[in-house]
Design brief:
By secondary structure, chain A is mainly α. In chain A, 77% of the residues lie in helices and 0% in strands. Chain A has 12 helices and no strands. The longest helix of chain A has 38 residues. Chain B is built from 18 helices and 20 strands. The N terminus of chain B is likely disordered. The N and C termini of chain B lie far apart (68 Å). In chain B, the strands form 4 sheets. In chain B, strands 1, 8, 9, 10, 11, 12, 13, 14, 15, 16, 17 and 18 form a 12-stranded mixed sheet that branches. Chain B has a 4-stranded antiparallel sheet with strand order 4-5-7-6, covered by helices on one side. Helix content of chain B is 34%, strand content 21%. The chains are: A mainly alpha, B alpha+beta. At the A-B interface, helix 2, helix 3, helix 5, helix 7 and helix 8 of A face helix 1, helix 2, helix 3, strand 10 and helix 8 of B.
């Protein structure tokens, strides 16, 4: 199977998956009690006359049949129109266009730090099995997995602000190209918090994969033939362990998008996660649907890229 | 394995590089802390942190607290409530009731300019109130002036409101930002929902959805131009983060409601607190079941230790109140039958209800809407258990709660309801004749309706005091609901802020920013 056919096959299954996701999101949101009018007015809805409520229902499109709402939304989405926020009356595309770069930047930095730390410490542990270096690596991974990111984030924010009067994320968020230095300061701390869990998972996978590969016959043969240390580590151990590392990194990147929801709240980043929470609270269906679809698409696309990457790094997957 | 051990050096380099890269980032950025924090502090932007965000720009349709606070800085109303909850002039300098309290004549302030530069006239006032009362607008406060049948200008600076019946509470209804005065031209142009244009101390500048709301000083403000050139309300999703931002110096004021967060702030940060213009109550439905028995409801009222509930749910940050929590007609005592817990009397009422060993009922809460409601419910549950009353607690998501509440589909509901110094404005909508919220109120009585109407029609202070005291007695002696407490709201300030006073009134809560300075 060629790389191209893999991409085409995965693209088709991605589209089917996203269609399924859109239907599930739509149904789940409609199963929740209440509607946009209730969310918008709260108990004050009771103060309106029937005529006023009817006027608002028409305004928010509350009375339309669910199937009609779905297909009109799907049609609009496919033609690039994500609709208008029921609360702010801004276009959903604009809201997402503002929030998406923040989340992508956060995810990129978190992944970068997580992979560098995870692979680095994982290799370090695997190359010293049973020794104190290995124990240290294991300890770091357990700590990384055990501490929830929201606790670590809250502690970090509190510590920095109370002891150093430093909380750059609380300044109005600036874009990467507007003020790169301030932007870096605003992103790096939440990215570090998110990266710890990622690093821990990748660390354990790297360690296990490298240890497994180092015990295989070809590895012992390579050592016996006198391969140089650098070539042995990188060409024989690392490359053969890479498939497992890439798989874990892909999974972590998918989960990372979900993790940004909490971290963006704590670090006051105006990203997709925060937009999602706010929109859910406001029953702002057009925004919620689109944001969840983007998260789902991100997860599916990352997995697709991982599959494609397999075919590049592992020739066996091309022969199936 | 010997060779593997031999490559330790390379692995160490990888690890060291990772660690150094991470820590260098932290050290480098931490080192610039002051350099980053200073630009905002040194600029003339006054930043307020709030967990909420401004959602709507049209003052006639807003319902959440922050919208009132923000738009209350941009718009004025004809009259407003001061910190003592007394009605004082705003855009109307004087007013008078006539024709048996069926006509209200207001004299307008002269020389007032809107943000667009035009001068306010009586035509703008008529257009504004017409818009607020129009069905299509769906103004949630329209019912407060529902008795008004005609709004007319009488000269350029006089407006006359004609009511269908004697209704002095109309004046109170005019204090909310939902009755803001806006230019007739902007109403005609349809720009109100996108570009606020008022006469207040600040003018609208920008709104970034869910992120920030920015205003600039109105140089033409009739009360004198504010010294703060720009005010920004920044949405900070958690109160802990607001506290951190205050410590970091990136905001100058934090609007808080959690006493636990307030308590963690250093003493150097002044915290102002006022009782909020709302109250917590356990609403009871008396239409069917055991709660239709007045003595069963009285037993609940007497078994309840309000002070303990206040302590358990908001750490004592508030005040035990009766039906009218604040203002000149505040309920004293808070209950006609059991101002404090009285278990003996509770048992007597249980016997009278035919349930000497107690009974059970279910109360709904929504921690989405009121984070303290679960703590209130748990505290009350243990108190009622002392006399054999079993209260089951059902916590609902916000919209589920709202739907059940609006439909009266509950036995009992822990609620946080808006308060008003005028008892008719508070309870006319629940217990008055044809009340809008009669279903969730769960109780109706002709004697109560008569008392409310008498108070509404009475324009003398002494007469009203007597009428409203009778309403409190009627509500609490029948244990219509169990009124619990009013909690504090907080504004934590940077030590550099001077001249700010937090008001209990939502529409004017931040109004003293007009005279606030930053050193």
């Amino acid at each position: 199977m060629t790389v191209l056919s893999t991409i085409v096959r995965r693209l088709l299954s991605t589209l089917v998956t996203l269609l399924g996701v859109s239907i599930i999101i739509f149904i789940v949101l409609r199963l929740l009690p209440g509607n946009a009018v209730t969310a918008s007015l709260g108990v004050s809805e009771g103060l309106l006359t029937h005529a006023q409520v009817a006027a608002l229902d028409r305004y928010y499109g509350v009375g339309q049949p669910a199937v009609q709402q779905y297909f009109s939304w799907l049609h609009a989405t496919l033609t690039g129109n994500l609709g208008v926020s029921l609360v702010s009356r801004e276009s959903v595309s604009t809201l997402i266009g503002t929030a998406l770069p923040v989340t992508l930047e956060l995810a990129f930095f978190a992944m970068l730090v997580g992979v560098v730390l995870g692979v680095g410490v994982g290799m370090f542990s695997a190359l010293h099995p049973g020794r104190w270096q290995d124990d240290l690596g294991q300890f770091v991974s357990v700590v990384g997995l055990a501490i929830p990111s929201f606790i670590l984030g809250t502690v970090l924010v509190t510590y920095m602000s109370f002891h150093f009067h430093y909380f750059p994320s609380s300044l109005t968020f600036v874009g990467l190209f507007t003020n790169p230095w301030l932007n870096f300061q605003q992103i790096i701390f939440p990215a570090l918090v998110l990266s710890l869990g990622i690093a821990a998972a990748i660390l354990r996978t790297t360690r296990a994969a490298v240890l497994e590969v180092s015990n295989l016959n070809f590895a012992r043969t390579a050592l016996g033939k006198g391969v140089s240390r650098r070539a042995f580590i990188w060409r024989h151990l690392f490359l053969n362990a890479l498939t497992a590392v890439v798989t874990m990194s892909g999974i972590q990147l998918g989960y990372l998008l979900g993790g940004t929801v909490i971290i963006e709240q704590i670090f006051i980043l105006p990203g997709l996660g925060r937009l999602l929470i706010t929109s859910i609270n406001n029953r702002d269906f057009p925004v919620v649907q689109s944001v969840i679809l983007i998260f789902a698409a991100g997860f599916v696309i990352v997995n697709m890229l991982v599959d494609v990457f397999y075919t590049s790094i592992d020739p066996r997957t091309r022969k199936r | 394995m010997k060779r593997i051990h031999g490559i330790r050096g390379l692995a160490s380099v990888v690890l060291a590089a990772s660690m150094v890269a991470s820590f260098s980032v932290i050290v480098a950025t931490s080192g610039s802390a002051s350099a980053v924090a200073k630009p905002r502090a040194a600029s003339s932007t006054f930043v307020i942190g709030s967990v909420n965000s401004v959602q709507k720009l049209d003052p006639d349709i807003i319902t959440n607290f922050l919208d009132f606070e923000a738009l209350g800085l941009i718009y004025n109303t004809l009259v407003q409530e001061n910190a003592s909850l007394k009605i004082v002039p705003d855009l109307a300098t004087s007013w008078a009731f006539s024709n048996g309290n069926k006509t209200l004549t207001l004299q307008l302030r002269q020389g007032v300019k809107f943000d667009d530069g035009s001068t306010m006239t009586s035509a703008d006032v008529v257009a504004s109130l017409d818009r607020a009362t129009a069905t299509a607008t769906a103004d949630p406060s329209a019912s407060f002036i529902g008795s008004v049948t005609n709004i007319a200008a009488s000269g350029p600076n006089t407006v006359v409101l004609t009511m269908s019946h004697a209704d002095v509470s109309v004046l109170e209804g005019l204090t909310t930002v939902n009755m803001a005065i806006m230019p007739a031209a902007a109403i005609t142009a349809g720009t109100i929902a996108t570009k606020p244009d008022g006469t207040g101390p600040f003018a609208y500048s920008a709104n970034v959805a869910n992120t920030s709301f920015t205003m600039t000083a109105n140089p033409n403000y009739w009360g004198g131009a504010p010294s703060l050139s720009t005010v920004e309300i920044e949405t900070i999703p958690t109160e802990q983060s607001i506290s951190a931002a205050l410590e970091a110096g990136t905001i100058q004021m934090g609007l808080l409601s959690e006493p636990t967060v307030v308590n963690t702030l250093p003493k150097s940060y002044p915290v102002q607190k006022v009782l909020s213009l709302s109250y917590r109550a356990l609403q009871l439905q008396d239409k069917k079941g055991i709660l239709s028995n007045v003595n069963a409801r009285r037993a609940i009222a007497c078994a309840t230790n309000r002070k303990q509930i206040l302590q358990d749910s908001v750490f004592g940050q508030g005040k035990v109140v009766g039906p009218v929590p604040l203002g000149p007609y505040a309920s004293k005592p808070v209950s006609a039958i059991c101002p404090t817990q009285n278990l003996k009397l509770a048992k007597t009422y249980l016997k009278a209800a035919g349930k000497p060993s107690g009974f059970s009922f279910t109360a709904i809460t929504s921690t989405d809407l009121d984070s303290t409601s679960a703590a209130q419910a748990v505290a009350m549950q243990s108190e009622l258990a002392q006399v054999g009353i079993k209260m089951k607690i059902q916590n609902l998501a916000s919209n589920a709660y709202i739907q059940d509440w609006l439909g009266g589909k509950f036995q009992a509901a822990f609620a946080e309801n808006g308060a008003d110094p005028d008892p008719y404005v508070m309870y006319g909508r629940y217990f008055g004749k044809g009340a809008d919220l009669g279903v969730p109120a769960g109780y109706s009585s002709k004697s109560l309706q008569s008392l409310l109407l008498a108070g509404d029609e009475n324009s003398t202070a002494a007469g009203q005091a007597k009428d409203w005291a009778a309403v409190t007695t009627n509500l609490t002696s029948n244990a219509v609901w169990i009124w619990l407490f009013d909690s504090n709201v907080f504004a934590a300030l940077s030590p550099t802020v001077h001249g700010f006073t937090l008001s209990p009134v939502n529409s004017t809560q931040l109004y003293s920013l007009a005279t606030t300075t930053v050193s």
